[in-house]
Amino acid sequence: MTSKLIFYYSRENRWSVNALAGALAAAALPGLKLSFPGTAEEFRREVSAAGPRDAAAVSFFTCQRKAAAGLAASLARPGGPLLVAGGPHASALPEDALAMGFGLAVAGEGEAAVLDLAKELLAGRRPEGIVRAAPAGSLDDYPSFPAKLGLYGPIEISRGCPYACTYCQTSYLHGGRPRHRSVRSVLEHMRAILDYGLKDVRFTTPDAFGYGSPDGRRLNLPALTELLESAGALAEKKGGRIFFGSFPSEVRPEHITPETLALAAAHVSNRRLIIGAQTGSPRLLKAIRRGHTVADVLRACDLCRARGFFPYVDFIFGLPGETRADEKATEELIMELSARGAMIHTHAFMPLPGTPLYGEKAPGLSRTAVAFLEKMESRGKAFGKWRAQRKIAAEPRGPKGPGRA
Asked: What is the pTM for the complete model shown?
């Protein structure tokens, strides 16, 4: 008997699917077939031809809720495949995923859960309802992508964050104690990428310079040195390049030091570093539990520029509780950073389920803030998707779900 697992391999979610497919490919379950349609049309076509022993999985963010609900509504049918929801939204609000039409919602890290699902399907069983998945444990136990299937992407080197920022899902989905992939495993992933003929190697992590830290707060320079020296040597040997602390990762401002920048300068190819600042208001920094100061952000920018790195600094406008005084403090910091050579990446607050701020009323962006952002963009000093995010934030949120303090 065979079963087929069809993953919606969308551009926005393929890295999440890579981790699930990596776990399945490594397990090599007899009788399991995997498919990865990359567009909604292709996904619908494959799912429409699938049967009750098969499953169709969609991983999605809250901002993709409407599109995911549309897929579920169009594909749910008697005798059809099991529709499975996963990712950040289903993890925080699994009941909402079921209400959208999915038959199974996976809440939590999905590697072990998808293995269990595949075994159930192969045994002729059809699990439904909510699966609350346990943490995946060691990252070395699961590949970041299924190289056996010819699918590649960034290498996840760390998971989890101790700061529990009130707007961010990372700590609430993956826990507050960081887990790090071993250097040996990172190099295995790199060899797969470079031997396939790809040249650029990228990484995912909540804080690139925090690699190896036991608590995510204190730097572990020996571990970071081992990683970057080993990765840099392998990339040089095979004619590749490594990108570290740039998209799809970032760096905490207080972890930008002369020592970490010296390591990066010696071994990485990027000269752009993404820094999370989020607000220029000391009051709001404390309220959202960022764990750093305005001075840390300015110092990080200056250190980057002195070492030849170009800082891209993230800011969020419209945080709950934000006043005009807070906006002004953020605008002043942005102007100062811009004068010191930084590019500004702008966001509008979006309430994410499972975070403490999900149920809070956001003030939105004032006319003054909108005018400021537009002025900075017109001068080529800022960019971002704050307009689209502001619209998403204004949409009905659905069930409140478990906000966490």
From this structure: 0.94
